[in-house]
Amino acid sequence: xxxxxxxxPTGHRAAAYFDLDKTILATSSTWALGTPMRRxxxxxxxxxxxxxxxxxxxxxxxxxxxxxxxxMEHLALVSAGISRHDLMEVVEGALAxxxxxxxxxxxxxxxxxxxxxxxxxxxxxxxxxxxVAPIARLVGADRAVATRMEVGExxxxxxxxxxxxxxxxKVVALREDAAAHGIDPARCWAYSDSISDEPxxxxxxxxxxxxPDRDLRRMAQERDWPVRDFARPVxxxxxxxxxxxxxRASLIAGAAGVLAVGGTAAWLVARHGSRHSA
Length: 278
Description:
Protein name: Hydrolase
Number of strands: 7
Strand order of the largest sheet: 4-3-2-1-5-6-7
Pfam families: HAD
InterPro entries: HAD-like_SerB (IPR050582), HAD-like_sf (IPR036412), HAD_hydro_SerB1 (IPR006385), HAD_sf (IPR023214)
Number of domains: 1
Shape: globular
Transmembrane segments: 249-270
Family: Belongs to the HAD-like hydrolase superfamily. SerB family.
């Protein structure tokens, strides 16, 4: 068992909280799902191109607070009118071809080790729950906590963010999840690649920097946090069969927004821009 996943003391529940993009996945979930979204008609080829280009800085150097907040603001402006049902169908249909090949083998090993140790496994992401929950289920997590957006009675996103999961909001959500499940954060692990997740990492007893950006790598060295560099994306089916989880359990964080914040919001920004340039 990896040292980072040592069992918690008897009588105390523990959990492992994983960021998604560039921590469990070798890429942005939106980057991976962009082509299926275009093929389904959710976005145009032009929007896809703009969105992928916009994500390059994130993939190379990470998403800073200013960039993420700006993308969140654009997300609220352009998400109204998109069908939640259609988005969920696209994500579910694309898991095998777009997501599975991008999952880090090292992340699966850690998830499996935590589960063997009796720990809850939770994916915490700034992306929206409709995108995160199916991926969390795929890799064997117990539940997902993610950005939430309002859905109207007609099943369309209204454009109103009911709760974001950016930066310090993640640590609030982590503490809420821990309290709801009888978990002690001091006995928990957290994994992330981004300095923006410093509050979440600092909130647990066992923070781990995974493929860290420059600032997080420096901080991890200063604070003597373990650093893990993942490098082996692998298809899941030959080596890992996730346990069956109900839709209700997977969507525990509730209904959320339209596309991812941080990575996913990039194509929404492009969509907004293409409306004005058309």
